[in-house]
Amino acid sequence: MIDNKITEKNQVSSIPYPSHGGNPQEVAKFSGIDVEQLIDFSASINPLPPPNCVSQLLLETPRLLREYPDPHCSLITQRISQATGVAEDWIRVTNGSTEMIYLLPHLLMKDQEIAIFDPCFSEYETAFRAFGFRPQSITLSPEKDFQADPLQIFTLLNSINKLKIIVLGNPASPTGKLYGEFLPNLQEYCEERKIILILDEAFIDFSSADNSAWNLLKKNTNLILIRSLTKFYSIPGLRIGYGILHPEKIKQIESYQYPWSVNALAQAVGAEVILDTGFQEKTRNWTIDERIFMLHELNSIPEIEVFSSETNFLLFRVRDNNKATAQDLYANLLSQSLLIRNCGNFKGLNESFFRISLRERRDNQKLVESIYDYFSTRQRDFKK
Questions:
Q1: Comparing C-alpha atoms, which of 238, 228, 274, 264 is closest to residue 72?
Q2: What percent of the chain has pLDDT over 90?
Q3: Could you count the other beta carbons within 10 Å of the beta carbon of residue 271?
């Protein structure tokens, strides 16, 4: 049953946007929509079922629950090393990639500065602010397709005194953009100035392993990669991620990680899924097909602008840049149990921007048709 406050026009502006994607419970509580009926496009999670090994491991849950987890995450660390070719002493397993993000501020001294490429995952800034730092924003423009302008960026970076850390997503959320050819230049800039470069590669597996910055690790010991297993392998309920960083930096942060922070089931599942090459190939091929389909379909709607992506989600904006239109679209879709991610709380964006994650074809078609119908109806009403 849909609550009237969702469908009544005069109450559209009261709809709260969740601060993160993947929170259908909050939306259901406000809207009166059964959470089981919501089709969630707001969470950037692989919609395909997890690898088959996950079901088998769940049968072992009673045994795993009776044991303390390995505090050193030995097996999964070995498997990550096997999958990536990175030495084990460069790997630190964490309770989701977010735990690693909140460990990294311990690498800084109190008077040092941080620069964050925006728009991006808000937890980067939140983590550093929690430790008393005030990150500087390097904001990329939608008018330039969120592409990095080296001259402009290096000019901005040079203006920041005592700059010690640079953070960016690769691919970035919510834009889905890779930094590609710009990364070696940025890595060289950081190496010359002994700046720590943090690349969040939580969505890199949806693209290609070839796009990872692993090859740059050999050139810069101040490079840190953050990885996630939950999104790609469709196991967000099991928090499992890791960082790749120099062993000396691991020593700097490891004492701040809570003991046994990664539970036994997460470790066991992570150690198996990361070697499932069949699932990896299947997911990447599926992602490419659905992304091409959605780009084509959404680009046929003249009232919105869609940005290309290298991930399992797409960013679009309502062309009239009108807050009321964006709110009305959001409410209209929600009234049909379609939940999308409003991006108004990302730096450099406003409420006209939305992120949608790829789902199965039937759901994707329903979303496209609903967006198309919304603007068609709006245009007819406007002409009356």
A1: 264
A2: 79
A3: 23
Beta bridge partners of 356: 314
CATH topology of 4-37+278-379 equal to that of 53-275? Answer: no
- Predicted TM-score (pTM) of the model is 0.92
What are the structural domain ranges in the chain? 4-37+278-379, 53-275
Which range, 58-62, 261-265, 320-324, has the best average confidence (pLDDT)? 261-265
What's the Cα-to-Cα distance from 211 to each of 150, 165, 203, 205, 214, rounded to whole Å?
19, 22, 11, 9, 9
Please calculate the CA angle 305-310-314 and round it to the nearest 5 degrees: 35
More confident residue, 65 or 301: 301
Cα distance between residue 372 and residue 367, in whole Å? 9
As a whole number, the mean pLDDT across the chain is 91
Task: Using the predicted structure, report yes or no on whether residue 333 has a pLDDT greater than 90.
Answer: yes
Residue 28 in contact with residue 1, Cβ under 8 Å?
A: no
Q: Is the pLDDT of residue 7 over 60?
A: no
Residue 21 binned pLDDT confidence (cut-offs 50, 70, 90) = confident
Q: The domain 4-37+278-379 is classified under which CATH number: 3.90.1150.10, 3.40.50.2000, 3.40.630.30, 3.90.870.10? A: 3.90.1150.10
Q: Please tell us whether the domain made up of 53-275 is placed in CATH 3.40.1180.10.
A: no
